[in-house]
Amino acid sequence: MSYTKRFDNRKFDEMRKIEAKVDIIPRADGSAMFKIGDTVAIAAVYGPRSLHPKFLQDPEKGILRCNYTMMPFSVSERIRPGPSRRSTEISLVTSKSLLPVLDLTKFPNAVVDVFIQIIQANAGTRCAGICAASMALAHAGIPMKDMVAAVSVGKVGDKIVIDLNKEEEDYEDGATDIPVAMTGRNHEITLLQLDGEVTKEELMKGLEMARKGCLDIIEIQKKALREAIKENQNE
Amino acid sequence: MNNDYVRSLIERGKRIDGRSLDSYREIKLESGISKYAEGSARCKIGETEVLVGVKFEVGTPYSDSPNEGTIVVSAELSPIANPDFELGPPNEQSVELARVVDRGIRESKAVDFKKLCIKEGEKIFMLFIDIQVINDDGNLIDASALGALKALSEAKFPKLDKDNKVVSGEFSGKLKLEKLPITCTVYKIGGSLLVDVDSKEEKAVDARLSVNVGNGRIHALQKGKDIGFSVDEIGRAVDIAVKKEKELAKLLK
Question: What does each C-alpha distance from A43 to A126, B50, B158 come to in angstroms?
């Protein structure tokens, strides 16, 4: 079956409307909000701070700990609070997606904590969380070699599209979701997952779409960071 | 900023940010902050920020109240909000917070549980009220209670299909609140009573009393922290809360 027109009339290579804001949680060392369509993620960074229990400490460098949580009311059917297998895995892949750009060698025995909360979910939450976390880390002043952005691409029906919404993820003739995170300068892929079925050609086409999308997102992230710094200077 | 400084200021009737003892910081209420919740709100008191979402689920009634639905309040003190908060199951602080908010709604009968009945003895609505703290700058109880009321006052009943399952995204009328009770927490620092402490003042608090007031009547009380109140102080605390009810209830209208 041919998927000829997207449910929300977007072009196949068009992302939903994006908003980004830095410095949204005053108590945090760094914080940011990232909204893509109806998906809203916030992230807060605390640290570097001392890590307990002690056996987790690394005397060579600081460690990064990410936690991804969906608010109970973020989706139609309420989610029970507390960790699930899904959120545990996403926390892990999120931290792996951010680590390559961080330089934590100056913080031996310390931890940088990143807490991500999904306020409203309409697909692409792990990617939105990574986008928010990357900004929050920069805002916290953690040494970074590059920014990270993430977006999902995938196959809906017979079409390769970027930034699937929930309706597309649930497409009755099948949808394949491919979340991708990428660094800004080297276009290094730091997150790649896939559920479904695609050919290699389709995957490569999707990755190219993701690359363009991530670069656009990084510009939005940088703009939000610059605005936050400007506001700080004016105060 | 140490506690001695906060205390010495308050002894002289002053506060760090220049407020009078009986005034709140600026309160901002906003609704509809999560579109997949049946009702939701953001409550900001100064820099304290909480989100509250209401979700309806279909459940079975308790055998002693076959024609009444119920509410379930949970509070999440996420580590996103305060460097001292940790991940994990609810701790004492979050359980107390949730229960104080729960009692304020339940005891004041703000929600008529009979209106949550779908089929007597068989099906009722359970209202899950989830409180998510985003930034803790003190006075979480008042912010959470106010946010919960705002979220409830905006909540809509979900539509049910013929098997009494919730049809997501479709609604069948508003949840009407019977009243708009307000929870005002009065804090004691030294010999002074004050409202709406921020996180710096909170560290110096000796005792607190949360008073839930609806139309001038007291529906719930919760005394917290390590030191007691005199009877006279309780009286004064209630007076303050009754006065504040009128002020805060306006924000919900």
Answer: 12, 15, 30
Global pTM value: 0.86
Nearest residue of A to residue B84, measured between CA atoms: A46
What ipTM did this prediction achieve? 0.74
Please name the member of A40, A115, A120 whose beta carbon is closest to the beta carbon of B79. Answer: A115
| B53-72 residues touching A, CB cutoff 8 A | 53-55, 57
Q: Does B85 touch chain A (CB under 8 A)?
A: no
Please judge whether B53 and A73 are an interchain contact, meaning their C-beta atoms are less than 8 angstroms apart.
yes
Structure confidence by residue, pLDDT tens digits, B17-47: 999 999 999 999 999 999 999 999 999 999 9
How many domains are there within chain B? 1
List of chain A residues whose C-beta atoms are within 8 Å of the C-beta of residue B34:
40, 71, 73-74, 119-120
B67 contacts: CB under 8 Å, gap ≥ 6 = B61, B114, B117, B120, B121
B42 in Cβ contact with B34 (< 8 Å): no
Nearest CA in chain B to A38: B35
Q: What CATH number should be reported for the domain holding residue A98?
A: 3.30.230.70
Which CATH number fits the domain that encloses residue B94? 3.30.230.70
Render pLDDT for A79-103 as a digit per residue (tens, 0 to 9). 999 889 899 999 999 999 999 999 9
